[in-house]
Amino acid sequence: MNRKIYILLVLALAFTTKSCDKFIEEELVTDVSAASYYTTESGLEDGVRATYSTFKPFYGQEISAAMLTFGTDIWTNGADGGHKVFNFYDGGLNGAESYITDSWDNWYKGINQANAIVNRAADVEMDEAKKTLRLAEVRFLRAYFYFNIVTTFGDAHLSLEETEGVEVEANKTSQSEIYAQAIIPDLEYAIANLPDEQSDYGRATKPAAEFLLGKALLTRSYQGFAETSDASRAETLFSNVINNYNFSLLPNFADLWDIDNQENSEMVFVVPNSKSQVDSDVDPFGHRWHLYFLHEYDVRRGMTRDIANGRPWKRHRPTDFMLTLWDRSVDTRYDASFKHVWYANKEEPATDAVGEEPARAALAIGDTAIYIPGPGKDVDWPQSRQNEVPYLVYSNDEYNERLFPSMNKWIDPTRPDRQKVNGQRDFILMRLADAYLLRAEAKLQQNNPSGAADDINVIRLRAAVPGQEAASQIAPADVDLDFLLDERARELVGEGHRWPDLTRTGKLVERTRLYNPQASPNIQDYHTVRPIPQNQIDRALGGYPQNPGYPQ
Asked: Where in the numbering of this chain does the RagB/SusD domain appear (predicted)?
């Protein structure tokens, strides 16, 4: 059935400079509808860079944190910020929510940018091998954006043709057709024509295309329109990523978060950022997730906001369930992912007891000011023991929307000042440990828990406390889908996978109701996809169908 759609064309953002061989978003280039824009080699190259730019307004920004982490079993809301409707699943989660509109518009802009390059490349005179490479890149990107569309919105508009003006004819194409016509053929073309590596860090590669196709097939394998070979093909593709290239797991999980070691052997595909560009505001985006997962340390005794500890926006806090997932006696990943001690960065005089507040000894700069023991270790902190130390202690029963364990994966101590919101970290979209866990999931889909356990144990062995390697290992009987989702949380917490993981596996509603008290009263089965943006519906001649459950 034909429907109507309104697509706004905007000036494309192009990656026209490089720093440390990374793509950096810098200059505005001409509208993609200009008739001669992509008829030259330089124009095509700029157009390809502009297609990559579609990642930047989403990944590493607050929009992706809200849409990918809120409203799940492991993350709930902190005290500050907006867009909590993604956690509450209340009436505010509708087509008028700005992040719904922004994500839809952004991904379709990227798709149209890719369509323009694919459609016009035949008229560009340049080396044919290089042209084929660039086409493989944009088809990889187009597949990525369509994969985001179907996993976020479900059935949606499909077009493989460039829009050069206001387009009002549209369709609401089934997910199965978008997989069949766009995602899978684009990624198969990319795999056939992309190199194993690229000199420009952040460009698409063959293993990145194999990873994405594996994830797309694995996602489809849960659907009613799945093909019987989806899980086995996904397993093969993840095996290719694991075995056929130069990737390797870092020996120490904590080293993944060393800001001076970002281009490491575990990275398959990232959205790169550059310190010089984000510090100078040439790049208006950068990585902002260092802001969102921190508790309110900066108003506590002995503390003031500084660069090393981060700017605490208090957006996302762990659920109680999340904090039960790690056995810290055998697993290092909680300790490497969360911060435990804050050292005084200002002097505090001794205080006398006042009411229920105990007397406190003076704090000098460098003394312990705040201690959050976290789950499972040193948890016996009754008030009598807290009163005996000069620093503040927050144990499990004292967490609230302002005080909670703070994730430190994205902390950026290299920012030029404490107020700076843009950080230089790359946003990780694919890393090798995730390939192992996705391959385990593909094996589990094929009723192979032994193979799944083998892959999970590779990841758990890397994370083991020294001397506890044997204790860290699991048996095939331990593996089911819930265990695998728990393992993905232990490894990938705060990396933007949780909402997609739960929707892919059909576990969103069940696990969110069980473990997220703020979300559980309102979440319904239809929340496994987001609402269609209201402006898409309002501006389309004849309307555009809203997803079931949401108000039209």
From this structure: 294-550
